[in-house]
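Example 3.2
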Amino acid sequence: MNISPAEAIRRYNVSKPTLYSDMKDGKLSFTLDDRKRRKINIAELDRIYDKRDEEGALTGEESVKSPVNNTQSNVKSTAEYSMGRLELEVEYLKRELTNRQEETERWKEAFDKAQSTADKITALLEDQSVKSRHATDKDEWKKTLTELETRIANQEKTTQEKEAEAEKILQQNKVLKKALTEEQSKGFFKKLFG
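Structure, written as tokens:
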């Protein structure tokens, strides 16, 4: 059952500023009706405030239930949210690292194939030089060899860049794991008070 804030103030030992402050701060949830008026569930009010007796004789200290439980649950839910977010980030980084490692392996394989091709070309060039081919053929082979060496150098550079990027991601992953471990190992009061 939902009631208006005015009815809540009449039924529960809480002041109007405290009630509205708690709604604003998120300690007390409410809904809006079709006329955009606030409505508060009685269970929410029972959770935070004490009911007024017929004479309204409760003191100010008795009007609000102990905030310790509320604070603990808020801190716990915030910590759980942070932990969940960190775990998702770690999982994402693990997937990224795996992808980068696979990509690095593909580049290494391509480099090995290119190196093998270069070795074959070198052998052919040496064989052709023994047969003393025409000078123009030598120039074409040299040009081809130079192009292949350039391609190999570019592939090596790209492979090194990918390995450096994978290492960077690995380092970020380690930092996140350390932060996650530190967050999990913090005591309750450290989490609460920093």
